[in-house]
Write a structure and sequence with these properties.
By secondary structure, the protein is of the alpha+beta class. The protein is built from 16 helices and 25 strands.
């Protein structure tokens, strides 16, 4: 057995000298961007070329045919089957004399089998367990078992507006509700119901579910936090505030569109309470067989300060990049390294208690934030020009001015006048309603009024980034091409 890793320095040195191939297979490398700086022999295998071939640790296989994808899992399957990818995996195996380890944002049993066929070990819990935990219905039950309660709610079949009214009256849920299906992504299956008209607008989606979560609607502040459940305990990262439904950024009323890591966002008492709740959730997950990385959203009631469980995501998530590039994680270690240690079965004697105390004390130092840009217009358009991924400033005309093309967001850190823009959609791509255009990493607060709207500086960046994407109408030939596909989302999959 290898010597236990007992300190931050041990973990840093271990991964700096790592001789096992690691692969992150996903549409883009957004979620685990920057991990290649920490883990030697790390390769991102992606479908979207965010860096125009300039990143040495990103492999984007050539694509000469028009591919139609219905899900991220299909993209990942395509990538792992690609001859250039399989050749790279075999080359790394022969060179390093070790089988590789692979991670996905989303995966399924077919991908588990394909990874095994290629000699890769999936560094995630089994898909069957992930799917079970991922259900918002199961999340509520796990929270209850851990003593982390949700907003007053009921889990039930809703087959009509009258049924909804009866359930709300029976369980004291008021007259305005939030309804969630068991599964969904970035708020796409979260419905805000104030009246019968709101209900009928989404009745088909709600009534098609075996059960939904009906919650009392509260005025709340959203938060997000990531953690890692391990055999030695649960390690908890710094707490982020969450941006939901900003119309400048997303088309979804309940859609996540950004985060902030700012000292003034929360009191020490709120941070300590959420840390403790997250640690209990992680321990409960581990008892149920789930280990490794997870994310939790909490809702803080603005009326009485009560902290409720929002949802639990058993995976790498949209805040993983900001978490692992936070000043705290950059000065210690990215939280995700603890996930890799857990799945590599490397002995770890680092104390979760000590780590979490440091995370609480130092985690909110510095200022960092991110905004997720979706294409918010309705007409399908072709992108005529797009910014390169890199470090930018705003010029006197409030337009993007490139400081340097870059594949590392940390190149802009600690500079309040700079932002890193990760381009997702590129020139000649189809921009479709709700598709991801770009992600911006900033070093300033970006909201005001308790996180309910963008501040002036953030608005300047939003306008400049949208302006940098030049759109044009489709030609007749392009319209005919698009008409062959039933879903605009099949043109290009979401990056986040």
């Amino acid at each position: 057995m290898s010597k236990p890793l007992s300190s931050i320095a041990d973990i840093r040195a271990f991964f700096a000298n790592n001789d096992t191939p690691y692969y992150f297979v996903s549409p883009s490398n957004f979620n685990l961007i920057n991990m290649d700086k920490w883990v030697k022999n790390w390769t991102n295998i992606n479908y979207i070329d965010c860096f125009d071939g300039q990143s040495p640790n990103v492999l984007v296989p050539s694509n000469t045919a028009i591919e139609v994808f219905e899900s991220v899992e299909q993209i990942n399957h395509y990538l792992l089957r690609h001859p250039e990818v399989t050749a790279r995996i075999q080359h790394d195996k022969q060179t390093l004399k070790k089988n590789g380890r692979v991670m996905f944002l989303f995966f399924n049993p077919e991908l588990e089998a394909l990874a095994a066929e290629l000699g890769l070990t999936v560094q995630l819990p089994k898909h069957e367990l992930v799917k079970n935990v991922d259900s918002k219905i199961t999340t509520t039950q796990i929270g209850n078992a851990a003593g982390v309660l949700s907003v007053p709610n009921v889990l039930a079949k809703v087959d009509s507006y009258q049924t909804l009214l009866s359930l709300a009256q029976m369980h004291h849920l008021g007259s305005r509700w939030v309804i969630q299906s068991a599964y969904g992504d970035s708020g796409k299956t979260t419905y805000f119901i104030d009246n019968e008209a709101d209900y009928h607008a989404v009745a088909k989606e709600i009534e098609s579910e075996e059960a939904v979560k009906v919650m009392k609607r509260i005025a709340c502040i959203g938060t997000a936090i990531e953690a890692c459940a391990t055999k030695t305990g649960t390690f908890v990262a710094p707490l982020l505030s969450e941006m939901i439904g900003f119309e400048e950024l997303t088309v979804y009323q309940g859609g996540w569109c950004g985060n902030e890591l700012i000292q003034a966002s929360f009191s020490d008492a709120v941070r300590a309470d959420i840390h403790a709740k997250t640690e209990r959730l992680g321990n409960e997950l581990y008892q149920r067989g789930y280990r490794g990385y997870f994310e939790v959203d909490y809702l803080i009631d603005q009326d009485d300060g009560q902290i409720y469980l929002g949802e639990l995501n058993p995976r790498i998530t949209g805040i993983s990049a900001l978490t692992n590039m936070s000043p705290f994680c950059q000065s210690t270690i990215p939280l995700f390294l603890l996930h890799l240690i857990e799945f590599a079965d490397i002995p770890l004697s680092l104390s979760p208690k000590d780590y979490n105390a440091q995370s609480l004390a130092l985690g909110a130092q510095g200022e960092s934030s991110q905004m997720i840009f979706k294409y918010t217009a309705n007409p399908l358009r072709k992108i005529a020009a797009a910014p390169v991924s890199g470090v930018y400033r705003l010029n006197a005309a409030d337009e993007l001015e490139l400081v340097q093309a870059s594949h590392q967001p940390v190149d802009s850190q600690q500079h309040p006048d700079l932002a890193y823009v990760l381009r997702i959609m590129n020139q000649d791509d189809y921009a479709y309603h709700g598709g991801d255009l770009a992600i911006a990493f900033l070093n300033i607060p970006i909201t005001e009024h308790q996180g309910q709207r963008l501040n002036t500086q953030a608005t300047r960046w939003v306008n400049a980034i949208h302006k940098a994407f030049v759109m044009r109408e489709l030609t007749q030939e392009e319209q005919q091409l698009v008409a062959r596909y039933s879903k605009p989302s099949s043109i290009k999959a979401s990056a986040s």
